[in-house]
Design a protein that fits this description.
The relative contact order is 0.08. It is globular, with a radius of gyration of 19 Å. It has helices spanning 2-5, 11-25, 31-49, 57-73, 85-97, 101-111, 117-134, 138-145, 154-173, 180-185. The protein is built from ten helices and no strands. With 192 residues, it is an all-alpha fold.
């Protein structure tokens, strides 16, 4: 089984071999199974990251990047003409954390049409704010996070609040004290 191969002393080697096997054989499974296997690998990366030393966490990001690139190349991200909002936002964040902002913006442009219609606006707004956040354009990110429309997905609302507080802190460190109401006052009809 996949989990058996990913255990033992040669964890890294076995895991890398599994990823390579998946990459070489994606055509053997349907799109739903491809997405499920990709998600299994991403979950394994998250699980493994909890048990590694802090200085080895860069390997987690490299695995995530590789897996998402496989997902893009091998069409593992879209199933039944939809992409999960969680996969979408995590995909953007992963490339932002690797300072690949152009690619993150291309992901937003390419994959946002495949989001569920009721989640498209907020997942796109959150992801765009993340690009600004990781580019250290804190005022732009804060303006998107501070919109009067709350995120309906709890995980987005929670992440947005944390990132919004980080934006306010960074702006404060730069001598730009910003209040929530100050940011919302700059919204225009076009922003809503």
């Amino acid at each position: 089984s996949l989990t058996h191969l990913a255990k033992g002393n040669n964890l890294t080697i076995n895991f890398e071999n599994l990823i390579e096997l998946f990459y070489q054989n994606t055509q053997l499974v349907n799109s739903l199974e491809r997405q499920e296997v990709l998600q299994f690998f991403l979950n394994q990366v998250n699980y493994m990251s909890r048990s590694v030393k802090k200085e080895e966490t860069g390997k987690q990001t490299q695995y995530q990047l590789r897996l998402y690139k496989i997902g893009i190349e091998k069409n593992c991200l879209i199933v039944f003409d939809q992409i999960s909002d969680i996969v979408f936002t995590n995909l953007v964040i992963t490339f932002c954390q690797n300072n690949d902002f152009d690619f993150a913006e291309k992901i937003i442009e390419k994959y946002s049409p495949f989001l569920e219609s009721n989640l498209k606006n907020e997942a796109t707004r959150f992801s765009t704010a993340c690009v600004f956040f990781y580019k250290k354009k804190y005022a732009d990110a804060a303006n998107l996070f501070a919109k009067k429309t709350k995120f309906t997905q709890l995980y987005l609302e929670h992440r947005a609040k944390i990132m919004f507080l980080c934006c306010k802190y960074e702006l404060y460190l730069k001598g730009i004290p910003v209040s929530y109401t100050h940011l919302r006052a700059h919204e225009t009809e076009a922003d809503l």
